[in-house]
Design goal:
Blueprint: E1 7-11, E2 20-26, E3 28-29, H1 30-36, H2 38-50, E4 61-64, H3 77-85, E5 91-92, H4 93-96, H5 101-111, E6 115-119, H6 122-128, H7 137-148, H8 162-188, H9 193-196, H10 200-207, E7 223-224, H11 230-240, E8 245-246, H12 255-261, E9 264-274, E10 280-283, E11 293-294, H13 297-318, E12 325-337, E13 340-354
Parallel strand pairs: 3-6, 7-8
Antiparallel strand pairs: 1-2, 4-5, 4-6, 9-10, 9-13, 10-11, 12-13
Helix pairs in contact: 1-2, 2-7, 3-5, 6-7, 6-8, 7-8, 8-11
Length: 359
């Protein structure tokens, strides 16, 4: 998972003690959306804050990407209907969508590069904390107020206010960033990084937990931060790992250098929805599919995995990777009614990583 200021912020609502999760999807920060259409975004957030009951899509927006018409070929009737309601200005999801099922439809449009989805991100949290000020801080504050009202398993608000929530989001990003760096370091040492990072001993070391047996983990080299938000995140991330942080003076324009000399990492997603004829339909940018419609859920998921695997491998090699390691994941959403399971949507994600061929 690649984390950044535009990573999607989510919680597992209803859990007794919900946790903040970040990504893997990227959203347009609300603070940025408000610079595109301040009046509409601010009025939407104020309206939603004034509602007694919180809506599932509060604080979420959508707009078109301006993609050329030839990319719109092959859309289902449902996808076409949602796309026609979108404009080049952000609109609230509770206005533009006409039902829960259309959330999956919008997701499929986003995966094809036809729509952008906006919502809470770490960049919004940094605006609330006063670390960032380049976009719309007031919009970020209202959006985090909405998010803070989400309930835990006991029916209590997830956070006391937007300030507390902002701190928790930023701290979560720093911790997850440290875990990703450590996982990569394990892999470089020939170890199973994905398995080790979940170890209770590793977690205890990162948490600095007290006890008779004290655990500690350190890297043997400094952590170099690149990107516009490097100064906001990497000093504390390095402290978690017990090393020095180096943030170059030109870190905000160094992303291109990192892309050249760093590890190639690319991702491809496929969305599976049921169309108007209850067929399982696969959608996704860059997928080479001999068949897009399936009568059975399992067949559609299997085909989507194979297509994502092939597409992400091709994308990674085109990006300069000498060889690639591919990880497939699935996120299947369903509901239960009278004891019967009902499919809602599925997202298949393929992530490929590898060293550039020139290294």
């Amino acid at each position: 998972m690649v984390l950044g200021g535009d990573s999607e912020v989510k919680i597992n609502e209803g859990a007794l003690t919900p946790e903040i999760s970040l990504g893997p999807r990227r959203l347009v920060p609300v603070s940025l959306l408000a610079t595109m259409d301040e009046k509409s975004v601010m009025e939407t957030l104020q309206r939603q804050l004034g509602n007694y009951a919180q809506g599932r899509n509060d604080g979420r927006f959508a707009l078109t990407t301006g993609a050329p018409d030839h990319l719109k070929a092959g859309l289902t009737k449902s996808q076409q209907a949602v796309l026609e309601r979108l404009t080049d200005k952000p609109q609230a999801l509770d206005v533009v969508l006409q039902g829960t099922a259309e959330i999956a439809t919008l997701d499929s449009l986003a995966s094809r590069g036809l729509a952008l989805i906006g919502g809470i991100t770490p960049s919004d949290a940094q605006h609330v904390l006063g670390v960032f000020d380049h976009w719309h801080g007031e919009a970020a504050s209202l959006a985090l107020q909405l998010f803070a009202r989400k309930k835990d398993g006991s029916g209590n608000p997830f956070a006391l206010d937007e300030g507390e929530l902002a701190l928790r989001i930023v701290e979560r990003l720093k911790r997850l960033s440290a875990e990703r760096v450590l996982e990569t370091s394990f892999c470089e040492d020939g170890l199973d990084g994905a398995a080790l990072i979940t170890s209770p001993l590793v977690k205890r070391a990162l948490n600095r937990d007290a006890g008779i047996a004290r655990m500690a983990l350190f890297l043997d080299r400094p952590l170099i931060g690149l990107g516009a938000g490097a100064r906001a995140y990497y000093p504390d991330t390095a402290a978690i790992l017990g090393v020095e942080a180096i943030v170059p003076a030109d870190a905000d324009v160094a992303n291109a250098i990192g892309a050249v000399v760093g590890q190639v990492r690319v991702m491809v997603e496929a969305e599976i929805i049921q169309n108007d004829h209850l067929m399982f339909e696969i959608a996704g940018a860059g997928l080479d599919l001999e068949q897009k419609l399936f009568g059975h859920e399992a067949d559609a998921i299997d085909a989507a995995k194979k297509a994502c695997d092939a597409a992400v491998r091709k994308k990674a090699l085109a990006a300069g990777a000498a060889s690639v390691e591919i990880v497939l994941s699935e996120d299947i959403k369903s509901s239960s009614h009278d004891g019967m399971r009902q499919f809602i949507s599925a997202t298949i994600t393929a992530t490929a990583k590898g060293r550039p061929a020139h290294q």
